[in-house]
Amino acid sequence: MQIKKILISLLVLLPIMVKAQNIKFKQLRYDEDYQHLATDTNTWYKKIKFLPLSSNKKVYASFGGEFRTQYFKYTNPDWGDAVQDNDGFVLSRYLFHGDLHVGKGLRAFVQLQGGMSNGEIEEPSPVNQNPLDLHQAFVDINLPIQENTIVLRLGRQEISYGSQRIVSVREAPNNRQSFDGAKLIFNSNKIRLDAFFTNYVQVKKGIFDDDPSKAIRFWGAYGALSKLLPFDNLDVYYFGYKRKSSAFDEGKGQEMRHSLGLRAARSYARFQYDTEGLYQFGNFSGKDISAWTMSANLSYSLINVPYQPKIGLKTEAISGDKVYGDEELNTFNPLFPRGGYFGLAALIGPANLFDIHPYLEISLSKTITFIQDYDVFWRMQKNDGIYAVNGRLLYSGKNTISKYIGAQLGSTLEYVPTNYLYFRAEFTWFNSGSYLKESGSGKDITMLGATATFKF
């Protein structure tokens, strides 16, 4: 009944929103700017995007939100080592935000989030089931300096950088992640520099009970340089991470980890590349940390042919621990990565891994895109296991020989009729390799998923 009401509301709102195609949404909703609507609020919808609160329109508010529903059905979850669900389950997420601007110097942003899970066999995690909570609440103090700006941001906020391999909003799971703390932002024409110090917000199942975790602290600095030849984007960054208790195949203990990274990306008329390298050092339970990762995403677009196919190749080398019981930990920690790291199925996380990932994108129309990909996985080191996207150890490397994990075939169909609506259907087949058969049941996994998102 609830879904039926939402669909009816969409049909009522859609004609109004089609006329407002100059509304552009961003993944970080606080980055949206609706000042261009100051002279164009001829519909009630545009008025809620730019609602003047003073006669000169320098004080204004903006409102927006999102509803997303997803259906998933897995065959042989956890490669046959988890309880089989024959019916699948439904995840629903709600986001609503208010944005207040007081001149150019002061801004306040508040966002509520709710997530519900229906039909899961096991008890849903707080990431899937969190009825209502304060997801973001921060104040920006803006100090313009000639053509540049310096912003001090205080409070609860989402953080996302670069390709989102290391720091992400965690879009794929039901609830996005946020941090409590302070950030200093310097913006100029070609340079953006961020420095921040935060605590991770621990998601809980109750209402308005998410708290900053004293056990997980995150700080760092990120510099993004644009249009610096021969790159479109050149990013240089440092991240610090401290966790009271971390778990790897090597054992458990306190972790203090430092990450130094470099990312370079460019898009030509037909050829695009995105490369990144990262080294980590620090201390884990009295052991030295020495870990690393390198990644590349190369693609070529065929513009003047039917359906404008895009052919691409991704590859990643991610370190794992070399020797059990020695004085060094080599397992890479992806920190706060995007949720669907290797597809919506999110079966494997980026640690102790080497993968080769060719893919093909075809534009069936202006609004429909078909994506076909094939990802082959190996363990980087035999003396380490494989991990989930959230860092949880899935299978140990102890008493195993093979490095070959398996291959994942994914087919995706995306339909984007307007800026406000997004539909996605995905089928994934994971063909289990010899390592998974050594470690557990090793059955093949299939996943059928469907997503519908409405933003306003």
Compact overview of the structure:
The chain is mainly beta.
* Element order: H for helix, E for strand: HHEEEEEEEEEEEEEEEEEEEEEHE
Indicate the mean pLDDT: 92
Number of helices: 3
Low-confidence stretches: 1-6
Question: In what range is the share of β-strand residues?
Answer: over 45%
Question: Can you walk through the features of this model?
Answer:
By secondary structure, the chain is mainly β. It contains 3 helices and 22 strands. The protein has helices at 2-18, 44-49, 434-439; strands spanning 51-52, 59-75, 89-102, 106-118, 130-145, 148-157, 179-187, 191-202, 211-226, 233-248, 251-267, 271-284, 287-301, 310-318, 328-329, 353-363, 368-378, 386-387, 393-395, 404-418, 421-432, 445-455.
Question: Can you lay out the helices and strands and say which pair or pack?
Answer:
Blueprint: H1 2-18, H2 44-49, E1 51-52, E2 59-75, E3 89-102, E4 106-118, E5 130-145, E6 148-157, E7 179-187, E8 191-202, E9 211-226, E10 233-248, E11 251-267, E12 271-284, E13 287-301, E14 310-318, E15 328-329, E16 353-363, E17 368-378, E18 386-387, E19 393-395, E20 404-418, E21 421-432, H3 434-439, E22 445-455
Parallel strand pairs: 13-15
Antiparallel strand pairs: 1-2, 2-3, 2-22, 3-4, 4-5, 5-6, 6-7, 7-8, 8-9, 9-10, 10-11, 11-12, 12-13, 13-14, 14-16, 16-17, 17-20, 18-19, 20-21, 21-22
